[in-house]
Amino acid sequence: MAKKDINKSSFDETTTLKLDIFRGCFREWYPVFLHHGFIDKVYVYDMFAGSGRDSEGDEGSPLILLNEAKGGEKRKHCETLLKKRNKEVVFTFNELLQDKSKELENVLRTNLIECKKSCKFDNCPYSGSMRFTQQEFHKLINTSEVKNILKNNRYAKFILLDQYGFKEVDTEIFRLLVNSPKTDIVFFVASSFVKRFRNSPETKKYIDTSKIDWDKATPKEVHTLIKEYYQSLLPKDKDYFLHAFTMKKGSNYYGLIFCSGHSFGMEKFMRVCWKVDPEAGESNCEVGGFLGRGSFFPELESKTASVENELRELVLSGEITTNIVGLNYALKLGCRPKVFVDTIFALEKEGRIQFEGEPNKTATDIHKAKEFRIVVK
Ligand SMILES: C[S@@+](CC[C@H](N)C(=O)[O-])C[C@H]1O[C@@H](n2cnc3c(N)ncnc32)[C@H](O)[C@@H]1O
């Protein structure tokens, strides 16, 4: 059956939310690497780029990325790039269909021409930075050119995988991406469809659905289950961050999976998710026991309360013995690290633990936090 072309009708509410999240993530991510002294090149890959707009003229992901890269009305990122002559940015917009790719190129080049009309700078840092490819994603990602970029530690990579369905991120591609340094990934999964077609050999080629305990989850938790599946593909000792954001559309559940090898990358993604869902940072609906907005069931815990309880137990049982371990743990549970700081300072006030070293309340940029020990009394 032919897939409905997402760019041929107006983006629905869920697609708009997805695009808002892409925007938020890239807005947080881009300046970090633009200003990063160790990074020579910034690569932005929109691997399933589409044709640029929907039927109403609303911006798709490529326009969102390009416009964010300008840095607002004042074009502060353009200014930074023009000053930093040794920093290069390369956008790759990959779209399999030739006509969509051509249309996209036209849309983006027109955008830059229009942008130049009101620009105070003589040169445009992005005029030569866009590449348009028309390849099957799995072929493109396996080219030696892309593989060399992926493994280069001095190149920052932002990879957007806005696939239809779920078949593009198989085990091999997932492992290739998560093992690449300085690489942050956001990918879309039509999770309800993985569940619905879990017994089909066609699905099993991409996702080993026999490894997923489907009975463990209600339909609305299916996307979290899929995230756990991808998590299980990571080596046990790999320090890595994955987070799931579920989106409900009709009776189906879709979602995004955020992947970062660095706590700072995940802190940034988490900030976006918690802005969209201030109750739990994980959905536009009710997931698990976390009812979110306007709950009439106060007996059900909030996500923060549940994570606080888990962290309390881990601290009191002596499993978390430093602030660094605890801050990272909170992040891996899908919470902003502040919840850990609140938990341990409450425990200290209760006289249950004491600190050794110099206690501090650092809860952002946690890779820079000064370590102190936590001792159970
Ligand atoms: C969900 S749409 C992307 C929409 C886009 N992100 C936007 O915001 O407008 C997926 C796109 O991927 C393209 N596509 C499908 N299979 C592909 C493949 N194997 N490799 C590259 N692109 C593909 C489709 O033609 C479609 O335009």
SSE blueprint and pairings:
Blueprint: H1 13-34, E1 41-46, H2 61-68, H3 76-83, E2 88-94, H4 98-117, E3 130-133, H5 137-141, H6 144-151, E4 155-161, H7 171-178, E5 183-189, H8 191-196, H9 201-204, H10 222-232, E6 241-249, E7 252-260, H11 263-276, H12 303-316, H13 323-332, H14 338-349, E8 353-356, E9 373-376
Parallel strand pairs: 1-2, 1-4, 2-3, 4-5
Antiparallel strand pairs: 5-7, 6-7, 8-9
Helix pairs in contact: 1-2, 1-11, 12-14, 13-14
The structure holds S-adenosylmethionine.
S-adenosylmethionine (SAM) is lined by residues 6-7, 19, 48-50, 60-61, 94-97, 100, 136-137, 162, 164.
* Number of structural units classed as domains: 2
CATH topology of the largest domain: Rossmann fold
What strand line-up does the widest sheet have? 3-2-1-4-5-7-6
Taking pLDDT < 50 over at least 5 consecutive residues as the criterion, the unreliable ranges are 291-298
List the bound ligands. Answer: S-adenosylmethionine
Helical residue percent band: 25-40%
Oligomer: single chain
CATH class term of the largest domain: Alpha Beta
Main beta-sheet annotation? 7 strands, mixed
Provide the gyration radius in Å: 22 Å
Distance between the termini: 64 Å
CATH architecture of the largest domain: 3-Layer(aba) Sandwich
Q: What is the 3D form?
A: globular
Mean pLDDT: 94
Q: What is the strand content?
A: 15-25%
**Helical run tally:** 14
> Structural class of the secondary structure composition?
alpha/beta
Order of helices and strands: HEHHEHEHHEHEHHHEEHHHHEE
Strand tally: 9
